[in-house]
Specification:
The structure is a homodimer of 191-residue chains.
Chain A: H1 12-23, E1 26-27, H2 28-35, H3 43-55, E2 59-64, E3 72-77, H4 79-89, E4 97-99, H5 101-107, H6 114-145, H7 156-186
Antiparallel strand pairs in A: 1-3, 2-3
Helix pairs in contact in A: 1-3, 1-4, 2-3, 6-7
Chain B binds a DNA duplex (28 and 28 nucleotides) through residues 2-4, 11-13, 27-30, 41-45, 47-48, 66, 68-73, 97, 99.
Amino acid sequence: MTATDRPFGLNNLAYQILGVVTRLPRSGYDIVKQLEHFRPAKTSQVYPTLSKLESAGLVSAEDVEQLGRPNKKVYSATEAGRQALIDWIGTEPEAPYSRDDFLTMIYSGWLASPDEVRVLVDGKIVRLDRQIAQMQSDIARLVALHPQEMHDPGHWRFYRNSLLNRRLMVAQAERVWCLSLLYQLSGATDD
Amino acid sequence: MTATDRPFGLNNLAYQILGVVTRLPRSGYDIVKQLEHFRPAKTSQVYPTLSKLESAGLVSAEDVEQLGRPNKKVYSATEAGRQALIDWIGTEPEAPYSRDDFLTMIYSGWLASPDEVRVLVDGKIVRLDRQIAQMQSDIARLVALHPQEMHDPGHWRFYRNSLLNRRLMVAQAERVWCLSLLYQLSGATDD
DNA sequence: GAATCCATGTAATTGGTTACATGATTCA
DNA sequence: TGAATCATGTAACCAATTACATGGATTC
């Protein structure tokens, strides 16, 4: 399925933004911050996408005047927007795309010394540990504040929790792999 | 670090291609096939990138005439190309980028019925199982054919094996998560 | 006084996909 | 006879990043 085959020609980012404003109404600025950890996008991509969604009638904007801060537009999903999301969920997801410098570096790790690769992997473990700690505290906070919603698949927090757990599990698996690589590298000395 | 900060202005794809032809000399067509499972790219992106690498002196091309097939250009890394890769491995990798329709759909799964989400997750498990079986057979073949290279961090097959194992571990973790989500969903009936 | 937060956007460039163009050989 | 494999490229378009532009309020 190509972008132009999809209803309204929406891409992954558009559906992600639509999903965000269906959970809770938000400004463009808030959407960018919300996306940061899960599916990062810059303002230069988010604002035009919001305009597109609005002219397609999938979101509606309300002007909110503020004191001491710039005014903002708060976007929420329309009924048509909700329905477009539900319809999309019923279609085949495209193959995921990813680009990872760390893995591309590992790919050619045999050219460098084991010590250089160790440094690279150590750095990765540090970043993974930070992410793991963050996700664990996010999960703890979520289940403490909204315990009953964690069991209700009709509530968005059920899926927020589920996706946080998924990222945590994947990060932990990546961490185990890093350690196993360091172990295999430990047999080799650097001269 | 932006693309223009990097030496020669190479991006992730350029370094990946450089890594491929440093392992073994290959044609553009072969490179595309080689990349398929690990870091997919189309011919329309690979051929121009090869030209760029060649004019930067990081790869060299040899014309090979063939009988019964179109002639081809076989690319290999130059010494400068090897060194550019090693230098890059010593720099900080940029944050990985990824885009995943399946996860974006799950994000808004609360809007759909539990049954619709089940179908989505079932499909994901099928795809994961196929990938897991493929990786397991790739790994088995690799260790059977080149057992001694599996322990040598100075050989590229050591890292091929390591990266295959990583993908396998991550896919298995994803699979476990899928099953746990199906289990949590099984409490909910569809009306 | 400098940095960060809030807030919305546009312009230029790079990265990636789809579609087009060509043509022989092999396999079902 | 039709599809797949081998083989190299270009043109048009869509997706994403970087840089630019503005400006008040708060925090260090």
